[in-house]
Amino acid sequence: MMAVRSCLGVKFGVSGLLSQLTSSTRHHGSRPCVSPILTPQHRNTSSSSTSSKVKVDLDQNTGVAVMHMQSPPVNSLSLDFITELCISLEKLEMDKGCRGLIITSSQPKVFSAGLDILEMYGKSPERCGEFWKSVQELWLKLYSSNMVTIAAVNGSSPAGGCLMALTCDYRIMADNPAYSIGLNETQLGIVAPFWFKDTLMNTIGLRNSEMALQLGLLYKPQDALKVGLVDQVVPEDQVLPAAVKSVNKWLAVPEHARQITKSMMRKSTIDRLTSNREADIQNFVSFITRESIQKSLRGYMELLKQKKA
Ligand SMILES: CCCCC/C=C\C/C=C\C=C\CC(=O)SCCNC(=O)CCNC(=O)[C@H](O)C(C)(C)COP(=O)(O)OP(=O)(O)OC[C@H]1O[C@@H](n2cnc3c(N)ncnc32)[C@H](O)[C@@H]1OP(=O)(O)O
Questions:
Q1: Ligand 1 in contact with 135 (CB < 6 A)?
Q2: Closest residue (by CA) to atom 16 of ligand 1?
Q3: For 8-49, how does the pLDDT look when each residue is reduced to its tens digit (9 = 90+)?
Q4: Residue 231, number of CB atoms within 10 A of its CB
Q5: pLDDT tens digits for 63-105?
Q6: How far apart are CA 286 and CA 120, in angstroms?
Q7: Distance, CA 176 to ligand 1 centroid (Å)?
Q8: Which domains does the chain carry?
Q9: pTM of the predicted protein model
Q10: H or E element, residue 101
């Protein structure tokens, strides 16, 4: 996408604005607009692509893709899964026919369990570094996406799962009190890095973030709604239809204006990570490989197992 500064440097007079507006009815940013008049060959055009952990259904009529996360049992973000997500996102971002993306889960009761704890436990520093680089990559791809992104949160979404939802433009969560969402890292004895914190703060503000992060709060859907962590709570079977409705509302806005605005709102947060990626990886590796942190992770995994027994 064109850099924000150069975009903002363009001065729109009335005629400039008008031409921007008329061109927006033809083109949405660099993507062609989908004609509202459907010709026979345009009807019911959809494509589906599936890798082992990610299924994408793209409706070429509407330009909306639904990305189903299907990494059993709980969509925990392993290096392999993250790599597949990044590849799918890259393809959609390049696809001029795709303007909106809904992310949801195919796993029952869970949107995503966050980062795969097994990727952070008992692994070499090199492997931890590779893993963290992929986490950064996923965040960057999602947070800077030109597409309208909607998280259809149809299950629990702790830590990295919550972060994924937070990168989207809009979050809709299933109204089921058995589900929760939040950045609960401190509960595992680990620390959410600055860009997790920034993403949360950009969404729910400083005071709410202070409490949410220090206490490692996991919010029930109605509480998440109150604090602004999610934007809408709907009956479980309405999550996807509500996401489709929302994405269409967002897509009705002239695309280049929306994209520039999104970029302007997120640029400083994105720049902060892009200019510190290597240091952030080193920080993560030295933090996560500490004996005390490894011990906390081991204890947490045991707790998860005990919960089942
Ligand atoms: C100052 C310097 C700072 C530098 C920065 C440093 C560090 C930052 C580091 C890390 C940041 C990490 C962010 C994260 O995302 S950590 C992951 C946090 N995730 C969780 O806490 C979620 C844990 N899981 C759950 O709460 C439940 O599983 C869940 C509610 C998601 C689902 O419950 P359900 O009852 O349906 O399923 P379970 O029986 O609990 O789980 C099934 C199965 O899956 C395993 N599992 C669950 N979550 C994870 C996970 N995140 N990773 C790996 N494996 C997971 C669980 O153990 C069960 O396994 P099994 O018993 O069937 O073998």
A1: no
A2: 115
A3: 222 222 223 223 323 333 333 444 333 333 333 444 578 888
A4: 17
A5: 999 999 999 999 999 999 999 999 999 999 999 999 999 999 9
A6: 12
A7: 20
A8: 45-254+265-303 (3.90.226.10)
A9: 0.88
A10: strand 100-105
